[in-house]
Amino acid sequence: MRYLPHTEKEITEMLQAIGLDSLDDLFETIPKDCRRADPLNLPEPLTEWELDTHMEALAAQMAVAPEYKVFLGAGSYHHFIPEAVKQLLLRSEFYTAYTPYQPEVSQGTLQAIYEYQTLVTLLLGMEVANASMYDGASALAEALLMAIRITKRKKVAVSRLIHPYYRQVVQTYLEAPGFEIVELPFLDNGTTDLSGLDGLEEFAAVAVQSPNFFGCIEDLQAHGQRVHSDPKTLFVVAFTEPLAYGLLKPPGDFGADIVCGEGQSLGSPQSFGGPGLGMFASKAKYVRSMPGRLVGQTIDKDGRRGFVLTLATREQHIRRERATSNICSNQGLCALASAMYMATLGKSGIRELAALNHDKAEYLKKGLREAGISLPFDDTPTFNEFVAKFGPDFKEKYGRLLEKRIVAGLPIESFYPELPDHYLLCATETTAKEDMDVLIKEVRS
After folding, report:
1. CB atoms closer than 10 angstroms to residue 190
2. Do 197 and 226 contact (CB within 8 A), yes or no?
3. Less CB within 10 Å around the terminal CB: N or C of the chain?
4. Residues 101 and 208 both lie in one domain
5. Are residues 190 and 334 both part of a single domain?
6. Which residues are registered as beta bridge partners of 278?
7. Rounded to an integer, what distance in angstroms lies between the CA atom of residue 435 and that of residue 383?
8. What CA–CA distance (Å, rounded) separates 166 from 42?
């Protein structure tokens, strides 16, 4: 079937209606040296079954579970998704719907978003949450822009232990408008060092991640007190693994002003890095500076419960230059998946699952320690993942392990040049004890 359904006659009629002679005339505003003159070098077309075989061969080149034993986390985590969540998401009224542009017509979609917002505030210990954002990285960047709007200050401090890709997105968002980003170093125990943070009255916000990129749990109590020594500076807490808050106290309990991060762990598959789910919550007093959209509950003229788009700060919603963001929400299906996931597990289920994740990583950590592997941040509690330091010859062994279909963590030297031969390893509830034992045996030998 052709992708373009229009006949040559219909195309000619449309061009005549707008006064053009050819499709090429549509691109006259683009300089010729920016346009490709020669045809694309594309292979010959394949039959459907030939294409299936080709795609299977490409897929076989990827090191993915369950064929490979993957000990990777670093912001994307493999979790079991309840079958009920998968099946409910396939319902046509959910699966085919995008975020509504005539929202009050879509009461079911609005109620689903409302339930999502409620569950997010409970998980993160915050007062209000929006209808989700694109991913964790853009959520953090938007949180810092929100702090800049609130405080009217033009400088932010960002921990080096926030996911490196998140920091790159923050740089992209903030540097062009001329805002200053100060990076905070980390201590020998794998947590953020705020001791040298002077002149807080200059900062719109201080952002840390917990658990951080090394998997270490930050002292949010101490960080919050330090940041709020200046009452105007906002305390922003980011995360890549929201499941941790099933076991840890939520950031809201430590006075966080804005909490944001990636919600992929809650009901969305990894899917080679996307799509993601940007979770975003704040204190209620900042709600009018919050990016995105927020669904609220009300009653209609007959006294029946209904749901409405309470706040919409996007530029398309008439606000134009007064908009706080050009984001409305992420793919609504991802937020719905996370709501279904959290509701399916419930409070006790999330806690039990978080404890299992913690225990699995601790088992792997203990085994590596006994195998003589150095754990540089061993004195700091971690969740799900941790850093191990192998010998300089481990790169060769890493390749041999890959041939045995074992992905032995993520080398982090490219992100932290001062940490050569350091690897970030992760274990979730999907990681079998037998597979961890094999890895421990291999690195010992």
Report:
1. 23
2. yes
3. N
4. yes
5. yes
6. 133, 262
7. 19
8. 35
